[in-house]
Specification:
OB fold (Dihydrolipoamide Acetyltransferase, E2P); 161 residues; alpha+beta
């Protein structure tokens, strides 16, 4: 298990991101009257939403849909949270057996060992195996919507000044 380097109990990347964000806010407030942070924040949310949505579309386009069985769970730790990533076993269209870790996504609970699920896997193995669920679209659509709202409000504020 890889441990992240920490400064005073906090991941150094979080401290760096916070410092950049605070610098951006002060610069924006004093020099740009608020529009810069709106564009940056809205743009980041929209870009993340589009990226995750394109990843889902790519998997739908190139991925193969097969029935699988949950055979194990991989335990991962992040800060004070514990995540259980399902490991599935399935046969591809040529009959070869595969055992893969899944990219679970929002709304996929910790299915019990032995549970039958539908998975989509990328034969080129560029993307992780995904347990199919309509909720895979909640995060990309939500991020895109939040980004669009922030950008629209920023445009409105910039237009009013």
């Amino acid at each position: 298990m890889e441990r992240r380097k920490r400064i005073i109990g906090v991941d150094w990347r979080v401290l760096l991101a916070a410092a950049v964000f605070i610098t951006l806010m002060y610069t924006d407030f004093f020099l740009c009257r608020g529009w810069l942070s709106g564009v940056v924040v809205g743009g980041v949310f929209a870009l993340l939403g589009v990226t995750l949505g394109l990843q889902n579309l790519w998997m739908i386009r190139v991925g193969k849909l097969v029935p699988a069985t949950v055979v194990d769970h991989k335990e991962e730790h992040s800060d004070d949270e514990v995540y259980y990533i399902p490991i599935v076993e399935f046969s591809d269209h040529s009959g070869r057996k595969h055992r893969k870790r899944t990219d679970t996504g929002l709304g996929v609970k910790r299915p019990a060992v032995g549970t039958r699920v539908l998975v989509r896997y990328d034969p080129s193995e560029k993307l992780e195996c995904q347990i199919m669920s309509a909720s895979r679209w909640i995060i990309p659509i939500g991020l895109l919507a939040v980004g669009a709202i922030v950008l629209a409000l920023t445009a409105r504020i910039g237009h009013d000044t």
